Amino acid sequence: MNLITINCFLYAFIVLSIGSYAAAFTARWPIKNIYLWEKEAHLLLSLPFSKSPPDKIGKKRSHCFQCNHPLAWQDLIPLLSYLMLKGSCRYCKTAISYRYPAIELLHLACCLPLLWIFSGDIYQLTLHTLLVSALITAAAIDLEHQLIPDECSTIALACALLINLPTNMLETSVLGMTIGYGLIYILRWIYLTFRGQEGIGLGDAKVIAAIGAWLGLSGLTPLLLCASLSGILYTVLMNRNGSKYMAFGPFLIFSAMLVFYF
Ligand SMILES: [Zn+2]
Predict the structure, then answer these.
(1) How many angstroms does the Cα of residue 135 sit away from the middle of ligand 1?
(2) Which stretches of the chain drop beneath a pLDDT of 50?
(3) How far, in Å, is the centroid of ligand 1 from the Cα of 142?
(4) How far apart are CA 257 and CA 262, in angstroms?
(5) Gap from CA of 59 to ligand 1 centroid (Å)
(6) What pLDDT does residue 176 have?
(7) What is the 82 CA–ligand 1 centroid distance (Å)?
(8) How many CB atoms lie within 10 A of CB 59?
(9) If you measure from the C-alpha of residue 115 to the centroid of ligand 1, how many angstroms do you get, rounded to a whole number?
(10) Cα of 39 from ligand 1 centre, angstroms
(11) What separation in Å is there between the alpha carbon of 72 and the centre of ligand 1?
(12) What is the pLDDT of residue 258?
């Protein structure tokens, strides 16, 4: 086995492990936040609240959500464990959520080309991998809950600025971030003023700020064009005209990957 193949396998394993953590985050972040919102609502209404807090992400040993059985190392190998266990828990045989293999595979598909693009540049490779992972995590949570965690947009934004810091792209990066956020903020304000409801969430504005900082000012036009067109196409194809809410984050993130790679 030559060095390139070893590097490729090692990077794929690291990316799958990050994907595995991201998948666990997409399952646990909503549980933690629903608990906090319920607690806050009870406090506001001066009602008793006795629900015990959920485990902190990464603090308790990984366990089955159904039977609570702690998972052994052989149950935690990204992708392989899911395939070997045929998608069900080793102990209680309950089906494991498809989010784990889906998010891990998405990480692999979106990150593997980075190894060729940034071959030999560990700084850019690491930051791009973390940025892409944060965006995939945001898209998954937005798709499921119509919410984008600040944790994801903050990591993506920090990585985007650090990516462009040592290059001559820093100015366009800052402009991309500011104009991207400002544009969505103004559109949101106009819609809110004239229609009395939110047309687009601030979570989307934060994600656009991060993507704007990554792709620069020139990336904003193809990004918004591609995200809007794919959103419209999805609405028409899935016949979602009657639905009130639709997550825009996944279209933004899908478009950002297209603009970056093509
Ligand atoms: Zn189980």
Answers:
(1) 29
(2) none
(3) 27
(4) 8
(5) 19
(6) 96
(7) 13
(8) 6
(9) 36
(10) 28
(11) 12
(12) 95
DSSP 8-state class, residue 85: T
| The two three-digit tokens of residue 198, written as one number | 């939110």
Helix (H, G, I), strand (E, B) or coil at 95: strand
160 Cα–ligand 1 center, Å: 39
Q: Would you state the structure tokens that stand for residue 162, as one six-digit string?
A: 């650090």
Whole-angstrom distance, CA of residue 77 vs CA of residue 233: 37
pLDDT at 242: 58
**Distance, CA of 201 to CA of 146 (rounded, Å):** 9
Instruction: Determine the Cα–Cα distance for residues 262 and 255; give it in Å rounded to an integer.
Output: 10
> For residue 70, what is the DSSP state?
B
Q: Which H helix or E strand runs over 116? A: helix 99-117
How far does residue 28's CA lie from ligand 1's centre (Å)? 16
Q: Which two tokens stand for residue 226?
A: 């591609």
- For Cα atoms 78, 119, 7, give the angle at the middle one, nearest 5 degrees: 40
Token pair, residue 184, equals 């969505």
Phi and psi at residue 68, in whole multiples of 5°?
A: 65, 5
User: pLDDT tens, 209-218?
Assistant: 999 999 999 9
| Residue 128: both structure tokens together | 């791009």
85 neighbors 96 (Cβ within 8 angstroms): yes
